[in-house]
Structure formats: structure tokens, C-alpha cells
Design goal:
201 residues, 2 helices
């Protein structure tokens, strides 16, 4: 049976988080520049300039999306900054390095989205760094993927903690997900990235 593994092992990922947090210092958790992480300020500044031009042209501010809150999105890029507030003047508290990681959007302010990740970390990300593509991350030690949404159905694969998968369908207690070219049904409780009882088709 195939076992799906995260690109970076979950334990190694947590060790990296701990090392970076220690190096960041107690002030606000900002990543040291010496580590070579990229910053989103250039792209965000360009987006702000474009938005400013549109704002002046129509004589109004940046409108909110009107989409329901909370809702889920995923990271568009391989390196995304999580900031302390909604703007580039706020310090970077974390740098995500996993494209497709699901986040929950809990608030909106102009072009910025307040998000929470699967560990409970909260911060602000520019909307250009997010996409509406739905993904989940395996949070159970091992998630068994089955052929049908039933505990009696044959297993087709196992997903280790930290695996990110695309959401195909969610109904009741089960979600059909796809990762590494393999799809199967996993229990919603072991996958973070959907609202309780949310139906996804």
C-alpha cells in the first residue's frame, strides 16, 4: 500500500519551526534576514500601486469581497510572509514555505486577509499570496485513504501527518482528496482545511 509523505517530514518541519522561532527572538518572531527568506514587499508594493491607480480612477477605496467569513484558502506561492498586521509596515512574524498550505481567513482589511493556520498561528497575508483552491493538511499521525467513504471500504493509501492534498469532494464525515497522483476518502476529523459539516463538490 502506498504511503504519502510530506515533502518535508513533519518532525523535521516542527524542528525547523522551533529553530527559527528561537533565532527570531522574543520581540515579534521576525525571521532573521541572514536565513535568506524572500520578502513579499516588492510584489505587495506593486499591487498597492496598481490598486491605488484603480482607487483614484473610480474614486473609492478597496472593496471587501463580500464572501463569507470564516472561509478557507491556500497559499499561492512557495514563500509567503505572515505579518503582524494588515500592511507591509508590520513586521514579518513567520514565513511559510509550502505552496498549497490551507489557511482559514477570519477577517479582511483592504487587500489583506487575517488568517489562521492548522497550528493556531494567526497573522495577516496579502490577498495576492492566496488562492481559492481548496486543500487540506493531514493532522492525524496517519490518515487512511479508502476507496469509498466508509470505514469498511478497502484502503488505497496512507497519508502521514503534514501531507497536503487537494480537496475533490467533502460530504458528511468524509473528504475525497488527492495527493501524489492518488485519490481516496479520508475522515474529515483527521484533515484540517474544511469547516464542520461543509459540503464541497
Amino acid at each position: 500500500m502506498t504511503t504519502l509523505k510530506p515533502k518535508t517530514s513533519f518532525m523535521a518541519l516542527m524542528a525547523l519551526f522551533a529553530a527559527l522561532a528561537a533565532a527570531a527572538g522574543p520581540a515579534h518572531g521576525q525571521m532573521p534576514a541572514a536565513l535568506g527568506f524572500s520578502d513579499d514587499s516588492t510584489q505587495v508594493a506593486a499591487t498597492h500601486r496598481a490598486a491605488g491607480g484603480r482607487k483614484a480612477a473610480r474614486g473609492g477605496g478597496v472593496r471587501r469581497t463580500g464572501l463569507p467569513l470564516p472561509r478557507f484558502a491556500s497559499l499561492r506561492a512557495t514563500k509567503v510572509n505572515l505579518r503582524a498586521g494588515p500592511g507591509v509596515r508590520y513586521p514579518v512574524e513567520w514565513v511559510y514555505q509550502r505552496r498549497g498550505l490551507p489557511v482559514m481567513i477570519t477577517a479582511e482589511f483592504d487587500a489583506w486577509r487575517k488568517v489562521r493556520d492548522w497550528r493556531g498561528t494567526v497573522g495577516w497575508i496579502h490577498r495576492s499570496m492566496l488562492t481559492g483552491k481548496r486543500t487540506v493538511i493531514a493532522t492525524g499521525r496517519e490518515v487512511v485513504l479508502r476507496r469509498k467513504p466508509s470505514a469498511d471500504s478497502p484502503a488505497v493509501a496512507r497519508a502521514e501527518a503534514g501531507v497536503i492534498a487537494r480537496v475533490l469532494v467533502c460530504e458528511a464525515d468524509w473528504c475525497r482528496i488527492q495527493a501524489g497522483g492518488i485519490s481516496g476518502w479520508g475522515r474529515r476529523a483527521a484533515l484540517w482545511g474544511t469547516l464542520p459539516e461543509e459540503t464541497i463538490k
